[in-house]
Amino acid sequence: MKRKLDQNDEPSPQQLQPKETREEQPKEQQKPTTAEPSFADLGLDPRLVQAVAKQNFEKPTLVQQKAIPLALQGQDVLCKASTGSGKTAVYVLPLLSGILKRKSTDATPFTAALILAPTRELADQVFKVIEQFSAFCSKDIHAAKLTENVSDAVQRSLLSNVPDIVVSTPARAWHNINSSALSVDKLQYLVLDEADLVLSYGYNEDMENISRSLPKGVQTIMMSATLSAELDTLKGIFCRNPTLLDVKEELGDEDEKLAQFYVKCAEDDKWLLSYLIFKLQLIKGPCLIFVADIDRAYRLKLFFEQFSIRSCILNSELPLNSRIKVIEEFNRGIYDIIIASDEKSEVFGDLAIGEDGKSKDIKPEAEKKDGDAAEKESEKSKKKRKTQKRDAEYGVSRGVDFRNVAAVINFDLPTSASSYIHRIGRTARAGRTGMALSFVIPSDQFGKHKPTSLKSTEHDEKILARIIRQQAKLNRKVEPYNFSKTQMDAFRYRMNDALRAVTKVAIREARTRELRQELLRSETLKRYFEENPAELAHLRHDGELGRTTRQQPHLKHVPDYLLPNGGQKALTSNQIGFVPFKKEGKDKGHKRNKPKGRSFKVGSGRKRDPLKTFKVRRKAK
Q1: How many CB atoms lie within 10 A of CB 501?
Q2: β-strand pairing of 434-440 with 258-264
Q3: Spatial CA neighbour of 551 closest among 339, 307, 309, 313
Q4: Topology alike, domains 39-246 and 252-292+342-365+405-483
Q5: Which of 190, 312, 506, 544 has its CA 20 to 30 A from that of 257?
Q6: Sign of the CA dihedral running 497, 503, 506, 508
Q7: List of E strands, 457-576
Q8: pTM of the full structure
Q9: Burial (CB count <10 Å: 0-12, 13-18, 19+), residue 301
């Protein structure tokens, strides 16, 4: 064998050593391999590896590489990882693998795993992931979800088959445990998904009751996107000595793909900017718009309808089946715009989470003193108003898997910096680019546009400052969105026409009408669609609701004189912000000419009663 020579054409010292020594030394000096492990290397059941491959998951993410082996060893795990990092598979795969391993020697049926999620949407999503990963072992794995709005008798019948895994919200789980419908005497695994939200959603008492009913030695896995005081409380209740994983993905490229912008503008400019963004297609692709409450969502939808911009609504009033259907069809690309009322961002009330993770009160001192009086007035007003029953387990800013979202628009800024993180986490996922745009009301502009003002926007500037500091610690920039306010004024009269048409009566009737329609689709037609699944394609959730609003055909099209030089093609500019329009000047194209001839003022001219112009012919006798 030819020896390797160095740069001086001499044998290297390693080649001159004895063969035995040469063989041992490279082993000690051998560099560790940098190849990433596969799912098969994690020690999972081969059937689960096959199911993972079918879902086109090539390699495990960083959080999956670290957490799955610990879960398979039976350790309690408290894992913090960013949104979209594959946290659901972290606990689903070890649970399925453990159940399959036990059933190979002991086929005694009992409920082995309980998965608790703060919202019904997230619980339903987890159940679907379990079905996907157990596709090649469906005969050995039986899962049940307790999220449907059904009677206790139906839930009891679901649990009578003794499912291996139960997916539920804490309230439903404790209700069935307390009624003896769900037995947890032999429970082996407990999972808390989005654990930091569980207590914030009001499940304190339910969680304490569940903890007292569990047997000793239950393996607990907690997944969260943030570390907060709520996690410390749950850790003390359920975990023995958990392994804390604070997984920070190396997502430098991902951060660059998420562009964050904000706009400081008056309240009425929010509506004008939204109209321009979607009508002129300044932002293209599927978009999520977050608003503060349900009325706000319907006002925005009816406003868009004036310009023939189609959108669908997601809120806590709609039935669960309808909400899940909207999310699924949005993920399939059927809808481009979802207006989501993020009511759970108000869970923190006037408490905002600072950069240190602690809660901070953003109420001014004057409001704190008058807090009791304000609460009494609000309670009285709530008693007077008859509102629809809302789902307390609803939430869209956390956990729900929105796919291929091109942009997130915070039409109403959230009340805390942590809620902002969870909202913008819906976009720029799986290597895709994304944009987050937030509307901020300056303190000097608050309350000036009374028809559309919102109380929660009073502290927008304080929240924005915290968001910017928080994102700076993550090496992310939140930049101002460039646009010319003077060039927007040409469209302002059209915006005002549309807003005037969206009255409170129209909002109330649209809200009632859609709720009635969705209830009909969700309950009455449920069995029909189970037998005829192809007919579901004919149901759309982004239909027009503005039948009672004043229709204005001239708003559906943008006239050419309002467009920039070059027409519609000029709108495809790559620069951030609005495409420059024509310079302001006396635009004679849209001035209304006064009619010639006599005046039509009230009180002048000849009055005619239209009812007296009809001539009735009597029938001949």
Answers
A1: 19
A2: parallel
A3: 307
A4: yes
A5: 312
A6: positive
A7: 478-480
A8: 0.61
A9: buried
Q: Strand pairing partners for 11?
A: 5
How far apart, in whole angstroms, are the C-alpha atoms of residue 170 and residue 84?
A: 23
User: What values do phi and psi take at 89, rounded to 5?
Assistant: -70, -20
Quote helix, strand, coil % in the chain, to nearest 5: 45, 10, 45
Question: Percentage of the chain surpassing pLDDT 70?
Answer: 67
- 399-444 pLDDT per residue, tens: 577 878 899 999 999 988 888 988 888 888 766 788 999 999 999 9
Cα angle 171-174-177, degrees, rounded to a multiple of 5? 150
Two structure tokens written together for 524: 């009455």
Q: Are 411 and 290 in contact (CB under 8 A)?
A: yes
Residue located via tokens 């009913």: 213
The answer to whether the beta carbons of residues 440 and 481 sit under 8 Å apart is: no
CATH number for 252-292+342-365+405-483 (one of 3.30.300.350, 3.40.50.300, 3.40.605.10, 3.10.20.70): it is 3.40.50.300
Q: Mention every residue, 6+ apart, whose C-beta is less than 8 A from residue 575.
A: 482
Residue range 342-354: mean pLDDT, rounded: 45
Domain ranges in the chain are: 39-246, 252-292+342-365+405-483
Residue 537: band (very low, low, confident or very high) from pLDDT cuts 50, 70, 90: low
Q: How far is CA 531 from CA 79, 144, 169, 534, in A?
A: 42, 21, 29, 9
And the tokens for 536? 């579901």
DSSP output for 219-235: EEEEEESS--HHHHHHH
Residue 79's H or E segment, with its range, is strand 77-80
Contacts 24+ apart (CB under 8 A), 307-311: 307/275, 307/278, 307/279, 307/494, 307/498, 307/555, 307/556, 308/555, 308/556, 309/275, 309/278, 309/279, 309/337, 310/335, 310/336, 310/337, 310/542, 310/544, 311/335, 311/336, 311/337, 311/338, 311/339, 311/542
Beta strands in 180-294, from DSSP E residues, in sequence order: 189-192, 219-224, 243-246, 258-264, 287-291
Average pLDDT on 188-217 reads 86
Calculate the alpha carbon distances from 393 to 201, 317, 402, 460 in Å.
7, 11, 18, 27
- Indicate whether 281 pLDDT > 60: yes
Residue with tokens 């035995």, as numbered in its chain: 20
Mean pLDDT across the chain:
76
Pairing mode of beta strands 351-353, 359-361: antiparallel
Q: Which two tokens stand for residue 257?
A: 């793909």
